[in-house]
Amino acid sequence: MPQSVDRALDLLDAVAEAPGPVTAKALARRLDCGLSTVYALLGALTDRGHLARTPAGYTLGYRLPSLHRAFQRQLRIDERVHEVLLRLRRVSGADVFFSTYRDGEIAVVDGVTAPAGSAFSVGRDPDAHATAHGKALLAALPGAARRQYLAATGMAPRTTRTLTSPELLERELRQVRRTGIAVEQEEAASGMACVAVPVRTADGALTAVSAALPVTDFARLRDPLTEALRRETAALR
């Protein structure tokens, strides 16, 4: 990849990860890049609408929502999916997500969370062994595809409770296949627990819907949350 393209993408990622507007000088320090180069890249990204300049610094631009809508359209994420997530959020109070396995990768492609944000986010998931949605999708894969995925991504520990043994994970995935439910507690993020159900859609796509709660609430709400997931996802099959 040409260096200028690589730096522009790093710059876009840095702005996306910032908690608020970020200055050009701060971006230059973070990327260990000359300020003149950063200004040139910021100008190009701003002109195309990928970034916006504010008095406090740079933020993501107006072009990003339309790209996300195009992304969802190309992955055939229709309005029913978002409606299901909205209903689940209303009835449970949990952060809810829609994930998919596609071309050897697992990614969260839609979500509805609290205004303050969530421990989880939309995007590619390289640690599916540690997440409930990842386990739901891995359990549904043929053995060869599952082993290939785990060999490519590894099983890095996200917390001290993350399963890093292929044998122990395989044992848990057999249980997921029996019950149709995947659960993780503080394996992906400390203080959080998640439950997921796999959804094989009418066009054969392998997807999952998951819900995340603070682990302190999980024992009390796990059963009604699981039932709500099963009920709502029936509309997507």
From TrEMBL:
The keyword DNA repair does not apply. Residues 2-62 form the HTH iclR-type domain. The keyword DNA-binding applies. Pfam families: HTH_IclR, IclR_C. SUPFAM superfamilies: GAF domain-like, Winged helix' DNA-binding domain. It comes from the Bacteria. Residues 63-237 form the IclR-ED domain. Coiled coil: none annotated. This is IclR family transcriptional regulator. It comes from Streptomyces celluloflavus. The lineage of its organism: Bacteria, Bacillati, Actinomycetota, Actinomycetes, Kitasatosporales.
